[in-house]
Specification:
Elements: E1 2-3, E2 14-15, E3 20-22, E4 30-31, H1 32-49, H2 53-63, H3 67-79, H4 88-91, H5 95-102, H6 121-135, H7 149-158, H8 170-173, H9 176-179, H10 188-203, H11 215-232, H12 235-238, H13 251-272, E5 277-279, H14 284-287, H15 294-310, E6 313-318, H16 325-340, E7 345-349, H17 352-369, E8 370-372, E9 376-379, H18 393-397, H19 409-420, H20 422-425, E10 430-434, H21 435-439, H22 448-456, E11 459-462, H23 470-486, E12 490-494, H24 499-512, E13 527-532, E14 542-543, E15 550-558, H25 576-590, E16 593-597, H26 601-614, H27 616-620, E17 625-628, H28 634-648, E18 664-668, E19 682-686, H29 690-697, E20 721-726, H30 745-761, E21 763-765, H31 769-776, H32 787-814, H33 838-845, E22 849-857, E23 863-864, H34 883-890, E24 894-897, E25 923-932, E26 935-940, E27 943-948, E28 951-954
Parallel strand pairs: 6-12, 7-10, 7-11, 9-10, 11-12, 15-20, 16-18, 16-19, 17-18, 19-20, 22-25
Antiparallel strand pairs: 1-2, 3-4, 5-8, 6-13, 13-14, 15-21, 22-23, 22-24, 25-26, 26-27, 27-28
Helix pairs in contact: 1-3, 1-11, 1-13, 2-3, 3-11, 6-7, 11-22, 11-23, 15-16, 23-24, 23-32, 30-32
Length: about 950
């Protein structure tokens, strides 16, 4: 405990090195002042390495300081994040350290102050720093603290554990220790001030900001603080830096520690791979080993001039499936990334399967086109099972952390989640993952600001922008507002986006960037447009030619819905089963590939059984009949998908002759609609909204296979065929009850009527697509109908509009506010309405789904992870499952409807000895017994659940 004289010291300003800050995983406690210095040093390095020149300049400009002053000041703030640990409740966590302090007459506190466990140290930092910044001369508003710069910074630092505290009241902060006994009284406040002043002196942070940070920049600084804290908290980093015995915190000792921390910081950041990817390649030819098509060439010729004139912004690309949107997006990303100083990109997709398929394409692009730090993360709930370079041992190793975190138990889980899971993943320069990883940033979830920070310095690419319902679309709108405010470039891709939806996305981005007037976007199909985030200028959409203009031949088959009938039942004339047999029979006889796309998993399973009975010769040949949907164990689904990619994927470019394929039928659900590069000779689909039908049709004759690459009946590659099985086209037809709420009934009715007009002449692709997609949603559509048909559609439209409004309201109710509405109060990012829990929000992103692991009871009484009885169920232990065991369990998990699992047996819970890894969270174990013919069964709650060759079913 040493008194310091000098700059800004007071008579009672001394540094007490008995105040500890870290001890978990260490040989002895680490003085809090050392951790504060370490964190400040790491932030300086992050400032230099992670932030772009434009972001650094924007922060300096908002604070009214020079770049150098801003760097020093923000680093000083980061150091102060844990000043709230200088309080009785925190110090009392180590009784042997707290005893001498408690008995020291210098420290006075109310009786029981050390027992105020709910007064966490980050809350104490918020309270204490508000007063300290005000005393240091930060601009303040005596009446409204949210307008005070000191309070804004204190609130920001108080959020370093992922949640921001509410705005404090001026009258309470004036007598803080009276309102919060956990702050302590005499001595405690002095000691916090001593650490504040000593940190300020050592770092040279005497500049005082003139103004505060707008919401977008406040989120960036908050994210920097969290990352700096986590990097500086690694036990492997702290242990070698523990002060020697007798270290008393003299000015010389503090200065020496600070200099050592500054010297060590670059290595920490470099080891974490948090650097910058540089978009080095400028020409399309340098990025891709092929000649650009019409869309890509038009972008390459015209987008650079727009970006040079107006700065970076948003690019919207609308084109059919198979027209090279992915490469167009990566080219646009490179251009926007250079213009904005972005440090990487995040490619967001609708599903885990599409994300897995996209990763190698982005990886190949990065290897050719980027330089600098090119760490790439795959981000979704099961991504850790797909490490670069393969499976097995690598997957197991991906679960092992890089070291212990010196922090409390709760933070160990969070920090390890950042290092190896979703929280850290968005901070890597490059990322490919599911859209929910990004949308979580605009929900009031812990560390949502860290997610926003992770996206802020990157180009954000959204594939299949049309594929999200009203709730997720509204969240995407909110995210685009934040990205616009933070100056992050965006690329949106869609095959079937309505003009109204396109306008809402473009205007959201512009609104965040400060341009509130609507743009009245009119997209071209195929084509693209550009909206500047700097000038607000929106270019006129450019239409482009398609390298593969085609006419989609549509056959609309009126059918009575009879999918519930057993596979052996008599085939009803006019039914769906009869129509499907009629369509498939010539293909089975002559050869060729067919996709049969069903609305529900249950109907896909039943259709597979029915086709199996109808065409035994097809089933007899390897790969003749396959089934693909989401309700398989993960390893089984991965194996099926790999076989499908081999059979129905793009022809090999090795130079060998492409031959026509033998008869093969894939029965599937909507999982094949998006981003999977499948090519079929014929596509058969149950009725769906027009946009989804066009997506499915895009899997028909997708690639050029040449004159010998298809059977004669499918030789016309520019005239793909789509057969739609339409239950609304029969007299008194209605939407099958088995479909539930999968699709809106009004959109199905509209689509059915449009298909009736298109069936004779076909659909021009791409020329006629945008008109039809927009027509489905036109308000005056009902004007062309009469009588009961008009009344029914009007009623269905009213229901759809009401449901969409409810979904948008839910998004507004559960999501965070727009950046313009933060107005100095970061707690709006953490505030939840009554009844909104973290579980509700994360569940809502994944809809009503559950996760199960089947355990197989063998004849000898053993229980295994596989039906063959070769993989015993792991027992676990004191530290949970080993990495390899955990990977083996997780790759066998299957998703199921949440209703199957409600009211189930407690015996289905994960054993405590398996541990608490996130992949085990909410997992339900099903004890399956054999019933013959390769089928397994168990009873869970109200349901009997079966597993067979068609996947999981329940009754």
């Amino acid at each position: 405990m040493v008194k310091h004289e000098g700059v800004d010291s007071s008579e009672n300003c001394f540094l007490d090195t008995r105040m500890w800050g870290k001890e978990h995983g260490l040989s002895r406690p680490y003085p809090v002042v050392c951790h504060l210095l370490d964190t400040g040093a790491v932030l300086q390095e992050l400032w230099d390495v992670v932030l772009s020149d434009k972001t650094r300049a924007a922060i300096a400009d908002a604070l009214g300081l020079s770049m150098t002053e801003a760097r020093t000041l923000v680093s000083f703030w980061a150091g102060l994040h844990d000043v709230g640990k200088i309080t009785p409740p925190f110090q009392a966590q180590l009784p042997y350290c707290y005893g001498p302090v408690r008995n020291d007459p210098f420290y006075v506190s109310a009786p029981g102050a050390e027992a105020e466990k709910s007064f966490r140290h980050e809350i104490a930092s918020h309270w204490a720093l508000t007063e300290l910044f005000t005393a240091a001369g930060y601009p303040s508003d005596g009446r409204l603290l949210r307008k005070s710069v000191g309070h804004q910074v204190a609130q920001l630092l108080g959020g370093h554990h992922g949640l921001f505290g509410a705005v404090l009241k001026a009258k309470e902060t004036a007598q803080a220790s009276r309102y919060n006994a956990g702050l302590g009284a005499q001595g405690w406040a002095d000691q916090r001030r001593a650490h504040f002043e000593e940190l300020r002196r050592a770092m040279g942070a005497f500049a005082v900001p003139v103004g505060g940070l707008p919401a977008g920049l406040a989120v960036v600084v908050a994210g920097l603080v969290v990352v700096a804290d986590w990097l500086a908290s690694q036990a492997s980093v702290i242990e070698p830096r523990l002060p020697a015995s007798g270290w008393s915190g003299t000015a010389e000792e503090v200065d020496a520690h600070w200099q050592a921390a500054v010297k060590a910081a670059p290595g920490l950041v470099r080891a974490a791979r948090l650097g910058r990817a540089r978009f080095s390649a400028e020409e399309f030819s340098a990025m891709f080993p092929f000649t650009p098509n019409s869309l890509q060439r038009d972008l390459a010729e015209h987008l650079p001039g727009l970006v040079d004139e107006h700065g970076a912004g948003l690019v919207l690309v609308t084109a059919p499936t198979g027209d090279g949107k992915t490469e167009a997006a990566l080219f646009a990303s490179s251009l926007l990334g250079r213009a904005s100083g972005a440090r990487g990109l995040y490619f967001a997709l609708p599903t885990m399967g599409t994300a897995d398929a996209m990763r190698p394409r982005v990886e190949a692009f990065a290897s050719r086109s980027l330089s600098g730090e090119r760490a790439l993360m795959l981000l979704h709930s099961m991504a850790w099972l797909s490490p670069p370079g393969g499976e097995g041992e690598a997957a197991s190793e991906a679960l092992v952390g890089e070291g212990v975190m010196s922090t409390g138990r709760g933070t160990v889980v969070e920090a390890d989640g950042w290092l190896r899971g979703s929280k850290r993943g968005l901070l890597a320069p490059l990322g490919v993952g599911t859209i929910d990883q990004a949308l979580s940033a605009v929900l009031p979830l812990r560390y949502n600001a860290l997610r926003l920070f992770g996206l802020s310095g990157k180009v954000f690419v959204v594939d299949e922008a049309h594929a999200y319902g009203p709730w997720m679309h509204q969240l995407l709108v909110r995210l685009l507002e934040w990205l616009g405010a933070m100056g992050a470039p965006v690329v949106l891709l869609s095959a079937t986006l309505t003009g109204r939806s396109a306008g809402s996305l473009v205007d959201a981005y512009r609104r965040g960037a400060g341009f509130r007037e609507p743009s009245r976007v009119v997209p071209r199909y195929p084509g693209w447009l550009f909206a500047s985030g700097v000038s607000g200028e929106v270019s006129a959409a450019r239409g482009t030619a398609s390298n593969r203009a085609r006419t989609l031949k549509v056959s609309r088959r009126p059918v009575v819905w009879d999918t519930a009938e057993s596979a052996g039942a008599t085939v009803r004339e006019g039914g769906r089963r009869a129509a499907l047999r009629e369509v498939l029979a010539p293909v089975v006889a002559e050869g060729g590939t067919v996709l049969v796309c069903c609305t529900t998993v249950a109907e896909a399973q039943q259709t597979y059984r029915d086709v199996r009975v109808a065409f035994p010769a097809l089933v007899a040949r390897p790969g003749g009949l396959r089934l693909l949907h989401s309700r398989f164990p993960a390893d089984v689904r991965a194996s099926i998908t790999a076989c499908c990619e081999s059979t129905y994927g793009k022809p090999c470019s090795s130079g060998g002759a492409v031959t026509a394929r033998a008869a093969s039928v894939l029965v599937a659900t909507q999982v094949v609609e998006q981003s999977l590069d499948f090519d079929f000779d014929l596509v058969v689909s149950d009725l769906a909204p027009l946009a989804q039908l066009l997506q499915r049709a895009g899997r028909g004759r997708r690639h050029e296979r040449g004159p010998l690459g298809r059977q004669r009946w499918a030789a016309a590659e520019d005239e793909p065929e789509l057969v739609v099985l339409d239950p609304l086209a029969v007299p008194d037809g209605s939407v099958p009850r088995s479909w539930g709420k999968v699709y809106d009934a009004g959109l199905l009715r509209r689509t059915s009527l449009i298909l009736a007009k298109c069936a004779g002449e076909g659909i021009a692709v791409p020329g006629g697509v945008q008109r039809l997609v927009d027509e489905v949603y036109e308000e005056d559509f009902v004007d062309g109908l009469e009588g009961a048909a008009r009344e029914e559609l009007a009623r269905l439209d009213e229901e759809r509009v009401a449901e969409e409004a409810a979904e948008r309201h839910l998004a507004a109710w559960t999501g965070i506010c727009a950046p313009a509405d933060v107005q100095g109060d970061l707690s709006k990012l953490s505030r939840r309405e009554a009844g909104v829990t973290e579980e509700l929000l994360t569940t809502r992103l994944g809809a009503d789904t559950g996760r199960v692991l089947c355990l197989y009871e063998q004849a000898d009484g053993a229980v295994t992870l596989d039906p063959g009885g070769k993989e015993p169920v792991p027992a676990g232990g004191r530290h949970g499952l080993k990495a390899a065991e955990l990977a083996n369990v997780a790759r066998r998990v299957a998703p199921v409807p949440g209703r199957w699992l409600r009211g189930g047996e407690p015996a289905g819970a994960v054993p405590q000895k398996w541990g608490t890894h996130p992949s085990l969270r909410d997992l339900v174990l099903l004890s399956m017994s054999p019933v013959g013919d390769g089928t397994w069964r168990c009873r869970h709650g109200r349901y009997t659940i079966f597993l067979s060759e068609v996947g999981l079913e329940a009754e």
